[in-house]
């Protein structure tokens, strides 16, 4: 009997990204990205003290 080992499925893409991740994607510094979030230029949600950027909303903003 042969046991087949399957590779684990790739994890789904996260719905949110951190400010440092968004900064890297946008080519901005982290501080400039935090400032843009504070000014409302980049849509973000706060969960406790964490600032998260909704990936789909950021992509939609960039495509406009």
Report on this model:
- The structure is a single chain.
- It contains 3 helices and 3 strands, in the order βααββα.
- The model has no long low-confidence stretch (mean pLDDT 90).
- It has one domain: Arc Repressor Mutant, subunit A (Orthogonal Bundle).
- With 64 residues, the chain is of the alpha+beta class.
Major β-sheet profile: 3 strands, antiparallel
Average residue pLDDT: 90
CATH level 3 topology:
Arc Repressor Mutant, subunit A
One letter per element, helices H and strands E, the order comes to EHHEEH
- The percent range for helix content is 40-55%
* Total strand segments: 3
Strand numbers in spatial order across the main sheet: 1-3-2
Distance between the termini: 56 Å
User: In the CATH classification, which architecture applies?
Assistant: Orthogonal Bundle
Question: How is this structure best summarized?
Answer:
This protein has 64 residues and is an alpha+beta fold. The protein contains three helices and three strands. The chain has one domain: Arc Repressor Mutant, subunit A, CATH 1.10.10.
Topology:
Blueprint: E1 16-18, H1 19-26, H2 30-39, E2 45-47, E3 50-54, H3 55-63
Antiparallel strand pairs: 1-3, 2-3
Helix pairs in contact: 1-2
Question: Which key phrases capture this entry?
Answer:
64 residues, alpha+beta, Arc Repressor Mutant, subunit A, three-stranded antiparallel sheet, 17% strand
């Amino acid at each position: 009997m042969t046991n087949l080992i399957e590779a684990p499925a790739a994890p789904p893409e996260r719905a949110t990204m951190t400010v440092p991740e968004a900064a890297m994607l946008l080519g901005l510094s982290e501080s400039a990205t935090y400032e843009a979030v504070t000014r409302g230029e980049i849509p973000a949600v706060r969960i406790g003290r964490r600032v998260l950027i909704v990936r789909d909303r950021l992509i939609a903003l960039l495509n406009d």
